[in-house]
Amino acid sequence: MNSGLLVLVLTAASITLSVADSATAQTSPAAIAKGFRAPRNAFGQPDLSGVWSNATITRLERDPKYGERLNLTTDEARSIEGASDQRNARLRADTDTSIKDPDKLPECQSGAQGAACGYNAFWTDPGTRLIRIGGEARTSILTAPANGRLPTRPNTSGARARAQLVGNFDNPENRALGERCIVGFGGTSGPPMLPVLYNNHYQIQQTKDAVVIVVEMVHDARIVRLADPKHPPADVRNWMGDSIGHWEGDTLVVETTNLRREEGLRGPTDNMKTIERFTRVSPQQVLYQFEVIDPSAFAAPVKGEEALNFTKDKIYEYACHEGNYAMSGILGGARQAEKEGKAVEGNRGQIKEEGGT
């Protein structure tokens, strides 16, 4: 091989690795920004303010059939999105009014059927497109481990369920956090912030000393302190953890610790730490990268990437408590069943959170 060709091959390989290498590193923001420099706000910071959406049909974990392949081909992406469009069209069709038995209702947006179909497609907005970063459609949100699968240690799987749920019909404290209107369903509140069945909008607001991330689902607000570099003592546990941030060039780096066990990625231990990186790579997109470090829960560091896409939509108040009549219905129904000597249906130790990934 002549020297000129060797240089060309090595340069191409270097570019490929700099854009995305799921085995060793995350995407280089500069490689996809292509010279774009985020505008500055009044404090001289890169401007991340606005409303952004991470709605997508890309799953957290990769389908094993893709192996260690991070990107889809153009044809694969077109096929997946086309199938999603066809399914959405079917789900949005008028309900057959001749069906009188709720147990025979067709599949709804969440994938449930029958009476478990709480929402039809009108009420949901999980996204219609795959995540695209640097123009490439992704096989999964996770970029590491290389297979895009969570390396969960067997002895810690289900830690979140065990920490929160003892007998899930017994009292309000044993219901899922989203049902209790404490934080958003699934992993939407973060960290890491993951897409769910609907309400995938985030509003970012900046001051000199803090960044506030308002989560549409259940209307959470996470405050990232920029001026205070210290976390509270380990025994102080906050909803959405304790977040401190700093700027590395155009990237906002956020470290979160002190998470409660009911939150985090699939049930954290007390030592889980999440590192998030927010980089505006174009007028329309913020590259959101995260790393979850919890050696007791995961056999290796977990990394992922999402596209936060700009939207002109507004975030409206979720007002969860005001409409939370389901809680009294769930618990009241269980108490009535107990009075009648009936077994309470369902697994008393497990809840699948709405919108969970």
Explain what you see:
The strands form two sheets. The protein has a nine-stranded mixed beta barrel. It has a two-stranded antiparallel sheet with strand order 2-3. The chain is built from five helices and twelve strands. With 357 residues, the protein is α+β, with helices and mostly antiparallel strands.
Instruction: Return the domain count.
Output: 1
Overall morphology: globular
* Fraction in helix: 10-25%
Strand order of the largest sheet: 1-5-6-7-8-9-10-11-12
Evaluate the radius of gyration: 22 Å
User: What class, by secondary structure content?
Assistant: alpha+beta
Instruction: Indicate the proportion of strand residues.
Output: 15-25%
State the end-to-end CA separation: 48 Å
How are helices and strands ordered from N to C? HHEHEEEHEEEEEEEEH
